[in-house]
UniProtKB/TrEMBL annotation:
Binding site for Zn(2+): C73, C76, H139, H190
Cofactor dependency: Zn(2+)
Keyword Transferase carried by entry: yes
Domain Galactose-1-phosphate uridyl transferase N-terminal residue range list: 41-202
Species, as recorded: Mycolicibacterium moriokaense
Family statement: Belongs to the galactose-1-phosphate uridylyltransferase type 1 family.
NCBIfam families linked: galT_1
Protein name: Galactose-1-phosphate uridylyltransferase
Length: 364
């Protein structure tokens, strides 16, 4: 049976995985860069008693590569083994441990969060895993421009990493995401995303699960299933729909452009999807991103967030879905998170979700 990816080691011992399209064989070369030795305890978790949330302190990320010129991009292929995080003459999809991780050390070491009642300033090692996923070797490409088989290969890589990280000790949540555009804050323009393995449930995931449990106690149903059914029945915010997936602008959208993609049946994460559903996911994801590209004269900056849940009692109500969002509110204006949003987490939208959905439908 063919292995899903070709493993390789980088000069400082970090793992690299190369995923290939049918008929192609990765050909990595030795990584000959003089990289400094890695330390495991590179970040710290600190507990915020005001909110009941964990905060990651990762000062080493101040040194990460920042908007290098194309000829110095560390995500482009590096056939010499001297210039790139991906020492190979070419690749289709690559995943590697982040050189400047917010969380690290989740190889096989057991980990438990400390009691928050034992001391005034609870803290712990920044346990977890941070990976970079490169969607293509084309520096000037984008996810939206991938052919369907290539997009499906990215989905397969996401799925592979989700299964691996969920099985590691001390990992409570696996989050695949993409930041596109300097307006969002990217530091590398090469088409790529990231994969985080958190040692705790991030605040938004915890909040959604709390609401889902309350909904189940109140109605006996699943919150996400009911949201999807209600959006389909209403119809005014549907962007695209297939036999297996539905994309819609949520009723209470926070962002100027916001689209959620739901599978039409309940699953916890990418691992639960069938082959046919994985194909369908790649197709509708490309469809929505293609509509994003058509909205304005310049590429739409966006964040893509894959919300996944473990098949555990604590997360049993969690329904896999994608949330895409953009800060662009017109062809010349951006939405900045100012006082109400940043200080109070009280979002104020400048557009109606129905008008955004209508425009996106028309762009299909």
């Amino acid at each position: 049976m063919k292995e899903p990816a070709t493993p390789w080691l980088l000069a400082d011992g970090r793992e690299l995985l190369l995923f290939a399209l049918p008929g192609r064989m990765p050909a990595p070369v030795p990584d000959r860069r003089p990289l400094p030795e890695r330390g495991i305890a590179q970040s710290q978790l600190r507990f915020d008693r005001q909110t009941g949330q964990w905060v990651v302190i990762a000062a080493l990320r101040q040194d990460r590569t920042y908007l290098p010129p194309a000829e110095a991009c560390p995500l482009c292929p590096g056939p010499s083994g001297l210039t790139s995080e991906i020492p190979a003459p070419d690749y289709d999809v690559a995943v590697f441990e982040n050189r400047f991780p917010s969380l690290s050390g989740a190889a096989g070491t057991p980990f438990r969060l400390p009691s928050v009642n034992a001391e005034p300033f609870p803290s712990a090692q920044g346990h977890g895993r941070c990976e970079v996923i490169c969607f293509s070797s084309d520096h000037n490409g984008s996810f939206s421009k991938l052919e369907v088989p290539h997009a499906r290969l990215v989905v397969d890589a996401w799925r592979h990493r989700t299964a691996d990280l969920m099985a590691r000790p001390g990992i409570a949540n696996v989050f695949c995401f993409e930041n596109r555009g300097e307006e969002i804050g990217v530091t590398l323009t090469h088409p790529h995303g990231q994969i985080y393995g958190y040692p705790y449930l991030p605040p938004r995931a915890a909040l959604m699960l709390r609401e889902a449990r309350a909904h189940a106690d109140r109605t006996g149903g699943n919150l996400f299933t009911d949201i999807l059914a209600n959006e389909v029945a209403d119809g005014s915010r549907i962007v695209a729909q297939t036999g297996k997936f539905t994309a819609f602008v949520p009723f209470a959208a926070r962002w100027p452009v916001e689209v959620h993609i739901y599978p039409n049946r309940f699953v916890h994460n990418l691992v639960d999807l069938t082959d046919a559903e994985l194909d369908g996911f790649a197709q509708i994801y490309l469809d929505v991103l293609g509509r994003f590209d058509l909205m304005y004269p310049t590429a739409l900056p966006y964040i893509s967030a894959l919300h996944q849940y473990a098949n555990t009692d604590e997360q049993r109500e969690g329904y896999f879905h994608v949330e895409l969002m953009s800060v662009r509110r017109s062809d010349t204006k951006l939405k900045f998170l100012a006082g109400s949003e940043s200080a109070m987490d009280a979002f104020i939208s400048d557009v109606t979700p129905e008008s955004v959905a209508q425009r996106l439908r028309e762009l299909g």
